[in-house]
Predict the 3D structure of the following.
Amino acid sequence: MSTSAAAANSTAPTLAIPRTLRGQKALVTGANSGIGRAVAIALGEAGADVMVNYVTGDEAAEEVVAAIRAYGVNASAYKADVSSEEQVAGMFRETIARFGTLDILVNNAGLQRDSSFQAMTLAQWHTVLNVNLTGQFLCAQQAIREFLRRGVVPEVSCAAGKIICMSSVHQEIPWAGHANYATSKGGIKLLMESMAQEMAPHRIRINAIAPGAIRTPINTSAWSTPEAYKSLMTLVPYGRIGEPEDIARAAVWLASDLSDYVVGTTLFVDGGMTLYPGFATGG
Ligand code: NAD
């Protein structure tokens, strides 16, 4: 289902995004699908120039670039595997050469390789940790070096840079059959908080978003049939699935000066999934 078709079936609001990021330069990893795609387009709508990272799917990446440029800002696509130190370094060199600097990193790329614990291969474990956790470390390190080099430019933002780490409700909720994924998200929590503590004195703000169930290709089996959707809703007090745009609006806010003083926080955007819905009727 396309994002627009998905949104048409939802009670999620469609809201215009204010141009709070005018003149800022952003890089979004894993931006040719799902949440990353919506975040990249929303940052463009908010006035930022955006580098669209992806690892496969040239056409989908170019489609995102075109959607961003429609807002009158610059956008380009860059193919790189976030788990490769060399490719990540090349991507940041190219982004800074093209845009002049970087103000916002959205560390979004992620994947699942699900398995029962007893059958999980070392390759499944490594793939998920390498992309979801090491990928965020490598990209954050490159972004922070540029933020430190440049410092605050008050006309652009009162912070020297902003990083948003895409985590998950599974940084809190254990997930049987997905030990590698839950471990990667638990790791992101303390990676984000440690980086935020270390970088705050430099006016670099680092935060995370923990999405609940969002309608994207990563979890199609959880929402694509009426039975699956009904079962999913037993976990979501708010009574609807999340749309990628729900996350995108939160990302724009966390990237903007409207959230200045928000440092080292995880913003749960989950329709109440972390409110222990099983206890709603007394447990
Ligand atoms: P998705 O599969 O639609 O998108 C994942 C993106 O990551 C794709 O663009 C993919 O190409 C990219 N990617 C994968 N491996 C990569 C690599 N090695 N290098 C660069 N890019 C790579 O899934 P999504 O739901 O949009 O997921 C985005 C993020 O949101 C992930 O970190 C995921 O864990 C997180 N998340 C999603 C949900 C949800 O319900 N959809 C919930 C919580 C967290």
